[in-house]
Amino acid sequence: FNTERFGQHILKNPSIAQDIVDKANLRPTDKVLEVGPGTGNLTVRILEKAKHCTAVEMDPRMAAELTKRVQGKPEQRRLEIIIGDFVKAELPYFDVCISNTPYQISSPLVFRLLSHRPLFRVAILMFQREFALRLVAHPGSALWSRLSANVQLYAKVDHVMNVGKNNFRPPPNVESSVVRIVPLDPPPPVKFEEFDGLTRIVFSRRNKTVHASFQAKGVTEMLEKNWRTWCAEQNKTIEDGVTMKRKIEGILNDTGYSESRAAKMDVNDLLKLLAAFHDEGIHYA
Ligand code: SAM
Predict the structure, then answer these.
(1) Measuring from atom 12 of ligand 1, which residue has the nearest CA?
(2) Atom nearest to 1 CA in ligand 1
(3) How far is CA 86 from the centre of its chain?
(4) pLDDT tens digits, residue range 24-82?
(5) Which of 19, 54, 59, 126 has most ligand 1 atoms within 8 Å of CB, for mutation?
(6) What pTM was computed for the model?
(7) Are 174 and 163 in contact (CB under 8 A)?
């Protein structure tokens, strides 16, 4: 195991560890999921407030240290350690997720949590500053991106606090931030793959017009292929002379988004545009 590869930067400032756990407003009945507990600086504080904690840790040496830390104490039986990669581990039921994980798995972590059912109540997560700022960015701001839209489709995200690199041992190369993620309940009735397919296209160059983004290589072909499959499934006959290029132009003009730019479109705009494509039987996945 290599410190850099597994992002083993242990949080050494006890007041920040306490702040992170406090931000979750844990209830005595809560089951908590912790990803990458390391030596357990957050875990012991979670166990003071919650009913149970499942901690997923990839490094068996770290898991052993954490086990030692609770051994023989009453909290031992309220802690379950899963040794393995969070990305592949089977997740238990949890009300709250708290994590300071390596930044390499930031994206998979967020999307895995948001697709988990039943939905959790809140997640308090530490990320590299830039990633955190993209999660909370608003349309029209410099960091509004495909990631912002894809996450805000499913959740309300707030910036909770900045954490400087000197609070870790060894210190990482980047500054960190803690964010709070509250899933929208119920989630919007849209398939992630569809929404993601659209954001992939319009954010490929977020300052270009939507019209121009759809002219990128392969886009028309991909949509046409999906449309033909859909028509076949629905037993719809395709009239002569219909081209995908024209259909796309029609949708962009009718919805009024042809000259819009992803940099300024909010989740609602993107959902409206997606729905207009779906009305025509055109799918992104
Ligand atoms: N949470 C502790 C803290 O705040 O002091 C440790 C933080 S350290 C940045 C990240 C921890 O995640 C390390 O213990 C590392 O071994 C573990 N880890 C790395 N990749 C992981 C993965 N894919 N799944 C689970 N744990 C992982």
Answers:
(1) 36
(2) 16
(3) 14
(4) 999 999 999 999 999 999 999 999 999 999 999 999 999 999 999 999 999 999 999 99
(5) 59
(6) 0.95
(7) no
